[in-house]
Amino acid sequence: MTTLLSRLTSFFSNATANDDEASYLCSQIIQDADQHLVASRLAEMLKNSGNAWPPKPTHAESWPDALKPYYTVYQRIAPFLPVHESSLDDAENRILIDKSRSLFAAVLDEEVDLPDVCETLEACSQSDSDLMPISGWLGFYSCIASLRHGYRWGILPVVREAQNEKSLQFPHELDIPWPYIQRRLGITSPGGSMSSNSYYNFDANRNIVYPITAGLSEEHNRTELWNSLLFVEIEDKALPLYRHISKAVQFLENDDIPSTISTLQKANDDCKAAFKHFYENMNDFNLVPSIWLPYCQGFQGWTLEGINGVSGGQNMLIRTLDSFLGVRPWPTEEEEALHLPLAQRNWLNSLRKFDIREVANQKGNEEVIKLLDHMVSQLRLWRMGHMRKMQRYQVHRPERNKMTAGKSLVRDGGVADDGAMVNHLKEMLSVRLRETK
Ligand code: HEM
């Protein structure tokens, strides 16, 4: 008993110490904003994430009254989304999807006062409005994106009958808030993103706010939790790395080589810590392979009008490293604007523009070049490790077509061979590795 108590006490005091460290680091980053363009972009990303990183969204308690019912709608509908056994009969699935969408429409109609919502969103969107803090916008984005994905698929696991739809009419209650969110956050996709569906889908205690496996087993709930939590915890580890990256840029530009070297050494250590966390936690206990694809990944897809859904590729750590180290091809501005909020893109673009490896080559300091190359090989090794691990998750599901959430790789008929997806992923990986010179 004493041991359990002391373990718990040490767990909570460590958690508090880590929280304190993280908020101290965040305030330092925000203070450093005027030191360099890259530093200002990093500060801007934090400010637009609730003065925190990883982002700190807030939910219904921070929204104006007219918007709060959306939270209630989600919680009322969530238990009806997942089923234990999927039907393989398209006609039966059509009935289930339509029934689920009618339920969405009825509950939205019952709870949401649309004229009130319009008026409130108009008021919240005025540049001088303080009706909804940015953290509230993040939570609201997560809520509406979760509702839109729920409506889009109707049932979970997602089924071929829904995948084969090319377009879809959403209820007004889900369409009207969307452009306001798009403008406020600076995204263009009609569906969710890694930010809305994972980063912003937590409360202050890191519990999922808009669940998709309500009423299923503990294994389902755990897999759902880790499908988002791993991305968030990786960002806990990445925060010191971002600061070191930003500092290294500044030091190198000022020709302060000793400080560049010591900062890049720290950045290499940070990178190692983040990747270690990934390797340790992407395991079959946290993320059960037979559950992940049908119950977690499917919901993240979109595919309507050829638009991609959420992909692991939208996470900030790997995009930051690719941008910092010049690992091409970078997504086009248009592609990236679909899913990455403007402040995240501005941070990445500032790193791409600086192009540190190019600058290091021009300045010709061997040690700086070596440390950057070392980060590149860490990233390369991580990509190969991730590829190996993710293959365990490509299980066959008879009720659906092959689909990677990020690439909308859907095949009509659903009998495309099982290797197709893995080959597609290997292709993606080899392009990246070729570019990682
Ligand atoms: C939670 C467990 C995870 C699973 C099961 C998983 C699985 C996958 C799958 C199937 C893909 C390819 C399909 C797609 O684009 O949607 C993918 C892509 C990707 N994932 Fe993950 N992933 C996981 C966690 C992570 C984490 C924590 C990171 C980042 C630290 C990450 C980073 C990436 C990246 C960057 C890509 C794009 C390909 C690339 O650039 O190499 N994934 N992941």
From TrEMBL:
The keyword Metal-binding applies. It comes from the Eukaryota. GO terms for molecular function: heme binding; indoleamine 2,3-dioxygenase activity; metal ion binding. InterPro entries: Indolamine_dOase, Trp/Indoleamine_2_3_dOase-like. Keywords: Heme, Iron, Metal-binding. Transmembrane segments: none annotated. It holds the Pfam family IDO. GO terms for biological process: 'de novo' NAD+ biosynthetic process from L-tryptophan; L-tryptophan catabolic process to kynurenine. Heme b binds at residue 386. GO terms for cellular component: cytoplasm. Belongs to the indoleamine 2,3-dioxygenase family. This is Indoleamine 2,3-dioxygenase. It comes from Rhodocollybia butyracea.
